[in-house]
Specification:
The structure is a homodimer. In chain A, about 40% of the residues lie in helices and about 20% in strands. Chains A, B: Its EC number is 2.3.3.21.
């Protein structure tokens, strides 16, 4: 095994093939930034020329300022019977301007003849020509040998010819793809062994899918057999059953086999980064995900509990802090109090001496969580709760009432886009103020009206802007009767903070979070209380 | 490898350790029946004597009338320093009356000394005594060697002593447990090889957890090295990251290694049974689960779609019908004409001959997706779009206008929960109808009002219910100005379908999806058009 194994992330390209996963350009830019924080070696950004959004992503890629990772564009070899310099798709790959281009090529005769409708020899020429052309234009070229393992099983010679052709033409990596995902580790190992013998000079990679539940194990087996490049996606996103989970693979290589593919400090951020990416894909993070799942180090009371009290390592395969995760004991309020104490400390409140207060806060958090609240991502709402229990939530205004009206777009005239109207009435120092504002939706209109009634007394709120708004339906099996959770992230340009609201009504849930956001800012700017958390602390 | 490998299911015992999973006795009885339909060899029902619910389950087990599976009770070896015939917990195991008793025993010196607080030799005596006693009382005894692999790595001799002691005392199976789940397949194989050499007579089993993402692969590796008994849970339920998914393991053994652990007819029921069990655990079935997930044979990529049109086997690792699943095509901006043609075919429209129509539909899908629509999860909206382009979208009613009013909860009296009111006006055959309804949110109120104005002309809509409602904020970097996408799943009890709506306003987006849902149902129920897709096709 080599100590230098590439970690190649394809979340933005192959991961985006997952059912229900659709990334905007803004999402792709943010995720690329998070992957760079994780310090993966390569980020495959998409297929320029084939997908307009991906072309635009690469056009904006210089804004990313990646510190650790190298950007790769994915595309196909030239078309059959077309000179490589005349191939538009190949031109789009060059135009993407990435240091690396990863070419997908057929390596299975059946696919060459039936899907590509050309000859095996023309396919080899397509591979050779495209690699040489891109190399001559200054690109590092990686080759994804599609259906390699199926081809190896049925027409081994051709499979090996493809690897040899790519290697001779100058491909830096030949990634062997289990495109249909049907492999098991023993077969992967056998195939990689054979390729190492047949094409000893090639740097081999592994691209696995999880159709047998063995994507991670297949990647590890390939590395154990000599591959030095692993491809995968964050949270195992991908078509069908998903790709290999790149974090699980890298953490296994580092923590089980001692390879050091990710720097220690970014391994310690693995849980946070995996969860942050799941916020952008809007696919809930899997609680049972290896290493980074919220249940990955959670123990239910029973056989394990007494042993864990003796020594946590008796029932943990690694120290969860190594991957930024935490051991949790379920059905035990001890863990609850401990984390509340820690969280309070993080926010500048020393709660260690007050067991009664800790118990009260723990009970209230549990009650609110049972109603759908979550404070993991909503520090500002948690801090307001803590202030309330400490008797220190400052009082700035009373809401008398509010309402919103949403009008059918069909009734709007002159192409007017505002379709919602909100009225908010508050009382400040005995004086009532009312305002009505229009917006492109009820939350937008409420936000405007609320600021308007407060701005006379609290002009500092003019600096506050909403930067993120997330909606999650909880218990979605009951249709529109479901409970809605809204998370709102706000900023004043210097700091950012997140608040949460829960209600049957999406507008009411948003209102609760909006209100908390402004109250938090007013409280945090009061002299007696700590400043808001710096921007990035919630990223 | 042996052709006769036990499939041992522990969903009802180890699976129930999962966070958030709580099974009633009725649930356990139903799940046991489903496991028997699947024809697993052994069903571990629980821990009698330790968990009252489990004691009662075994007391009622004769009601199960199992046709294929054998019931096992799980428990521990006798306590240190207690005669086996005086041990209450061992007595409860006998009282459960099962043909098989599976004993868990420590096999790691550190655990024996620190958690059990006894000596390594007393631990061996506990194993020997308990196996002999239960065997003498007519039970088949299996032994779970807890922490076997960790012990093998640190104090190999003792680990092997435990297996030898169990084998000599008459245990029919010794299952090697990766209790903390930290193993990789190559290490499992190495350990099983060593045990086969040291204790050649023992029948070995594998009990894997998924903490490295390798539970399935570790089970397969053990079988390849000579184990003939695999333990796991349906859907991989279990503490932390879960146990080995017993179905994925068995299907890999059968369909990849040709072992025949499950009869062919029950393999063909695998998807249905896995989903039925997830209804009883109330944990939503994972779409990306190998073999049985609803996405396991779903294809999105344009690259794949054109090849699938030629031959579906080019992009499938098995025929999905072998496991009771189905191939599905997803529509997305990555998809070209080929996937639209295939999707049309799936929905009952022959579009093959009409290149111009296919191009028009592809262009429109791409345009809508650039505005935030997604069709890969919204077949019904896609079908309506297709009907429009075919000139066949039936016309049922015109919306004149609609509005909703949301009132602050603060103004409600008598604890009234309805905080939203909606008014909808439609025109049907020249006649205007208007209705106003209240609801716990704007979408709920709009849904009620819309049905009320339509029910006179279309009484069949009374059968339609919303079953799922999902909200996604797109480009959420712009706060409440962001675009909102809503997916609504509806059912009439026999079929289910999903529609999509996109707008700046969450209520308007919901309205679009609601409207499509009812129009789709009316269209699908018209004689001239195909019936809605059966339940399960979208499960």
């Amino acid at each position: 095994m080599s100590n230098s194994v590439h970690v190649y992330d394809t979340t933005l390209r192959d991961g985006a093939q997952q059912e229900g996963l659709n990334l905007s350009i803004a999402d792709k830019m943010t995720i690329a930034g998070l992957l760079d924080e994780l310090a993966v070696d390569f980020i495959e950004g998409g297929w320029p020329g084939a997908i307009p959004k991906d072309t635009e992503f690469f056009a904006r890629a210089n804004e990313l300022e990646l510190a650790h990772s190298t950007l790769a564009a994915f595309g196909s070899t030239r078309k059959p019977g077309v000179a490589v310099e005349d191939d538009e798709q190949v031109a789009a790959l060059l135009a993407a301007g990435t240091p690396v281009v990863t070419l997908v090529a057929k390596s299975h005769v059946g696919h060459v003849e039936r899907a590509l409708r050309t000859t095996p020899s023309e396919n080899l020429a397509m591979i050779t020509d495209t690699i040489r052309y891109l190399s001559a234009n200054g690109r590092r070229v990686f080759l994804d040998a599609e259906h390699f393992f199926d081809s190896f099983a049925t027409s081994r010679t051709y499979a090996l010819d493809v690897v040899a052709a790519a290697d001779e033409a100058g491909a830096e990596v030949v990634a062997l793809c289990d495109t249909n995902g049907g492999m098991l580790p023993s077969r992967v190992r056998e195939a990689v062994d054979a390729v190492k013998l047949a094409v000893p000079g090639a740097r081999l990679g592994m691209h696995a899918h999880n159709d047998t539940g063995c994507a991670v194990a297949n990647s590890i087996a390939a590395v154990e057999a000599g591959a030095t490049h692993v491809q995968g996606t964050i949270n195992g996103y991908g078509e069908r059953t998903g790709n290999a989970d790149v974090l699980t693979v890298a953490l296994n290589l580092d923590l089980k086999l001692g390879l050091g593919t990710l720097p220690e400090h970014s391994r310690a951020e693995a849980s946070r980064i995996a969860h942050a990416i799941s916020e952008h894909t809007n696919i809930p993070a899997g609680a049972r995900q290896p290493y980074v799942g919220s249940s990955a180090f959670a123990h239910k009371a029973g056989l394990h509990a007494s042993a864990i009290r003796v020594d946590p390592d008796l029932y943990q395969h690694i120290d969860p802090r190594a991957v930024g995760n935490d051991m949790r004991m379920l059905i035990s309020d001890m863990a609850g109090r401990a984390s509340i104490e820690l969280k309070g400390k993080e926010l500048g409140f020393d709660l260690a001496g007050d067991a009664e207060l800790l118990g009260r806060v723990a009970t209230r958090v549990k009650e609110l969580e049972s109603r759908g609240y979550t404070f993991d991502a909503a520090d500002a709402s948690f801090e307001l709760l803590l202030r309330e229990e400490l008797g220190g939530r400052p009082h700035f205004f009373d809401v008398v009432n509010w309402r919103t009206i949403i009008l059918a777009a069909e009734t709007s005239v002159d192409g007017e886009v505002d379709t919602a109207e909100a009225t908010v009435k508050v009382r400040i120092d005995g004086k009532k103020t009312i305002a009505t504002c229009e917006g492109n939706g009820p939350v937008n209109a409420l936000d405007k009206a609320l600021r308007q009634v407060l701005e006379g007394a609290y002009p500092q709120l003019a600096a506050v802007n909403l930067v993120d708004y997330k909606v999650r339906i909880l218990d979605s099996a009951s249709g529109t009767d479901a409970v809605t959770r809204v998370l709102i992230e706000s900023t004043d340009g210097a700091a950012s903070w997140t608040t949460v609201g829960v209600a049957a009504n999406v507008v009411e849930a948003s209102w609760v979070a909006l209100l908390d956001s402004l109250v938090y800012y007013l409280a945090a700017r009061s002299d007696a209380v700590p400043a808001p958390v710096p921007v990035g602390a919630h990223a």
